[in-house]
Design brief:
The complex is a heterodimer of chains A (333) and B (415). Chain A has a single domain, classed as BirA Bifunctional Protein, domain 2, CATH 3.30.930.10. Chain A contains 11 helices and 11 strands. In chain A, a hairpin with a 2-residue loop joins strand 3 and strand 4. Chain A is globular and about 55 Å long. Chain B has an 8-stranded parallel β-sheet. Chain B has a 3-stranded antiparallel β-sheet with strand order 8-10-9. In chain B, helix 4 runs parallel beside helix 6 and helix 4 crosses helix 16. The N and C termini of chain B lie far apart (44 Å). Classes of the chains: A alpha+beta (333), B alpha/beta (415). Chains A and B meet through helix 9 of A and helix 8 and helix 11 of B.
């Protein structure tokens, strides 16, 4: 990754220049292969692909200050999906193992415009498994990512060459067994090198870049504190205040690729956690009615498709992995 | 229609808004022929009114100031500049949230924002402004965009001097549906405040006028239909032409408060976090939870406070008076405690500071001042308040608000 240069990568060009650029074409072919490989892997493992809703009365409350998009649904305030999380849990009433590739819209704070890793519109490969715990779901995620990267590396040598991406960068990844450290350990590690990371919050972007730059293979950060994530990440039964969740962080400074967790599926806990995250339970009516009658315990994750593509293709910025990129606050097609 | 405040010294406030510092004294023309002395006091309203500020004879702090200055200090040597919840204010005063009360909507709300901005006073923008008046971008009510949240923000920031003031935006439970904080945090209009560290979000757990209840508004039937799916509406309570709209007060436990504050810090790392507490019997515990979770300021609204509409049972008989809140908070006071409730003149403000507050909030006094003169009312009122505070603080032999302490206050019950 060429982030040693003081200049940040260029902003998205006009659609014609962007779409006809050889680098964009190679990047999108890599993305296409990654998605095809995921479908192969998950379908053969017994997953059903669902088509995710785009609008609904309520969506993932999200985090880190991003704003939802309201739409007028016949006089009712509806939302564009910021993630498929509520529908993922609900879908387990139909099938035990599901996945979808879902478009998400988040009006991120303007300070994210030049992080090289935020888009206002992006896609997520969402997976949810009934009855799974964190060990099982991170194991699945690991195998899935290894399969996606191997398949892409083998299929598209010319594209990697055009992009100047050295596929030896994946040697460690393809061995599997990604690293693991807890949020508390990550905080301690960052503080030891003088980075003032709050123990109660998400790893901030600068901190995550520090950890990511030092790593040679992807690694999991687990056990985030409660105040840093949504109500659907389950709190540990044995360690109050600690969530049974994880992020997958790419090496080489590319940062977060994926978030996931065991899910809260107990009605009273969900309502309480909604209050702890400042949400008004009233607006989650359909979802709460559903969980009150019972939804399966589960675990799942969502891989940022553009972020994974950016990492695999070795691009400077995440917008380069999207055909029609929308940067926060930038008016674009 | 100009607002009236029958339960408040409205005439005095309006006089200050007209005359500025001169209103802190008897009429100058009476000097030399009227014999003054302890005035027949009006009936004290509460325990803070019953207390007195008690300057000592021996003043070590004054000696220090004398040495520092090389001359005898005077009242204008009192430095009132104060840090308030991460902001800097020219005096230990901020403008409280006025919410969606109709008296604060429209022009008075904007005039208030402009004058508070010019003075560099931190200002709280109340809950329910967005659901009732709109935000002010694509969704603003046509022709009335200035009363929106964005309109109020702009009115304030257009006048704000560098380095002073700041805005704290509240979000109630129902406001969470409109994502007020996310909206402000991601809006280009708020960026100058954010970039200069002058944006805060205030988590509101309740209010002084009706502790334990949420916000209340009286609507006509048509407006009620528009808001109907988001609020509790009582069509029977107020007769046929009016509807009582109630926000939910929101459910809080220690853990809910703690986690909400942490989430605010997680999601809005560049904004300050303020927490407003109603005068509950566990106010000290709630303040401790807020501080431990990382709140930059804790606001306590005494039972004397409130600009909004409240059931008479509540204004008369529910919630701790501010004096009792301050007593309960005295053992372990929050580092930045902001208090409100009937604030309008210097002694009440200085007593509150001596009892542990960092700053006092103006509610009704600010609204009435602006109503008296939309261009200069609050500015003159504040000039008077600042001079009074300087005189009172210097009389105690002190030259900064943070030097005040409990010894500066005498209470008739012997404390």
């Amino acid at each position: 990754m060429n982030h040693d240069t003081p200049n940040s990568p260029p902003s998205p060009p006009a659609p014609r220049a962007h779409l006809s650029s050889p680098a964009t074409r190679s990047t999108l072919r890599i993305q296409n292969r990654l998605i095809a490989a995921a479908r192969e892997y998950l379908t053969s493992a017994g997953f059903t692909e669902m088509l995710p809703p785009v609008i609904g009365p309520v969506t993932d409350p999200g985090s880190r200050g991003s704003k939802q998009v309201d739409i007028d649904f016949y006089g009712h305030r509806y939302k564009l999906m910021t993630s498929a999380i509520l529908y993922k849990q609900a879908s387990l009433l139909a099938f035990d193992k599901i996945f979808c590739i879902a478009p998400n819209v988040r009006l991120e704070p303007l300070e994210t415009t030049d992080t090289d890793r935020h888009l206002a519109e992006f896609h997520q490969l969402d997976v949810e498994v009934a009855g799974a715990d964190r060990e099982r779901i991170t194991g699945l995620l690991e195998d899935l990512v290894v399969h996606m990267v191997r398949s892409t590396r083998d299929a598209l040598p010319a594209d990697f060459e055009l992009l100047g991406r050295d596929v030896d960068a994946f040697t460690e990844l393809l061995h599997g067994s990604f690293g693991r450290l807890t949020h508390a350990d990550a905080v301690a590690e960052l503080r030891a090198v003088g980075h003032d990371q709050s123990p109660d919050a998400e790893i901030d972007w600068a901190g995550e870049a520090l950890l990511s730059s030092k790593a040679a293979r992807p690694f999991f950060v687990t056990d985030y504190p409660k105040g840093s994530r949504g109500f659907y990440d389950r709190e540990s039964r044995t360690e109050p205040g600690v969530l049974r969740n994880f992020d997958l962080i790419a090496p080489e400074g590319f940062g977060e690729l994926c978030s996931g967790s065991e899910r809260t599926n107990d009605y009273a806990q969900i309502v309480t956690r909604m209050r702890e995250t400042g949400e008004n339970p009233q607006k989650y009516r359909w979802y709460l009615d559903l969980v009150r009658e019972g939804v399966p315990a589960s675990a799942g994750f969502g891989i940022g498709v553009e972020r994974l593509t950016r990492y695999v293709a070795g691009r400077d910025a995440v917008w380069q992995a999207n055909a029609f990129p929308k940067l926060p606050g930038v008016v674009s097609p | 229609m100009s607002p009236v405040a029958p339960a408040f010294p409205e005439d005095e406030v309006r006089r200050r808004a007209r005359s500025g510092a001169a209103a802190a004294f008897p009429a100058a023309e009476d000097y030399g022929h009227v014999l003054f002395g302890a005035c027949a006091p009006t009936a004290p309203e509460d325990d803070i009114d019953r207390m007195r500020l008690v300057p000592p004879v021996f003043m070590e702090e004054r000696l220090k100031k004398l040495i520092e200055l090389g001359r005898e200090p005077m009242y204008d040597d009192v430095e009132l500049t104060t840090g308030i919840g991460g902001f800097t204010a020219a005096l230990p005063v901020y403008v409280s949230a006025l919410g969606s009360t109709r008296a604060a909507g429209g022009d008075p709300g904007l005039a208030l924002g402009r004058q508070a901005g010019r003075l560099g006073l931190p200002m709280v923008i109340g809950e329910n402004v967005v659901p009732v008046h709109g935000y002010g971008r694509l969704d603003g009510p046509p022709g009335d965009a200035t009363v929106t949240l964005l309109g109020r923000l702009r009115a304030y920031t257009d006048e704000l001097p560098d380095g002073l003031g700041g805005v704290a935006v509240q979000q109630s439970t129902e406001d969470a549906d409109a994502e007020v904080w996310n909206l402000v945090y991601s809006d280009p209009a708020a960026r100058p405040l954010l970039d200069s560290g002058r944006l805060a979000f205030e988590l509101k757990t309740g209010q002084g006028a009706k502790p334990g209840l949420g916000g209340m508004t009286v609507l006509d039937t048509a407006a009620a239909a528009r808001l109907g799916d988001r609020y509790g509406l009582d069509t029977a309570a107020l007769g046929e032409r009016h509807v009582l709209r109630s926000s939910s007060p929101g459910t809080f436990t220690a853990e809910i408060l703690r986690q909400q504050i942490r989430l605010m810090r997680n999601n809005f790392p560049r904004a300050r976090v303020w927490v407003k507490l109603h005068p509950g019997r566990d106010v000290a515990e709630a303040a401790r939870v807020a501080v431990d979770a990382g709140a930059d300021a804790v606001t306590v609204d005494g039972a004397e406070g409130g600009t909004g509409w409240a059931p008479v049972a509540f204004t008369g008989g529910v919630g701790l008076p501010l004096a009792a809140c301050l007593r309960r908070l005295a053992d372990d006071p929050p580092p930045c405690l902001l208090v409100s409730g009937r604030m309008w003149e210097g002694t009440r403000a200085v007593k509150s500071l001596a009892l542990g507050a960092r700053a006092v909030g103006l509610g009704r006094a600010a609204l009435l001042s602006v109503a008296e003169d939309p261009d200069q009312g609050l500015i003159r009122f504040t000039e008077c308040l600042a001079m009074e505070m300087r005189m009172l603080i210097s009389a105690l032999g002190k030259y900064a608000p943070d030097a005040l302490d409990q010894q500066d206050v005498w209470s008739p019950d012997g404390n």
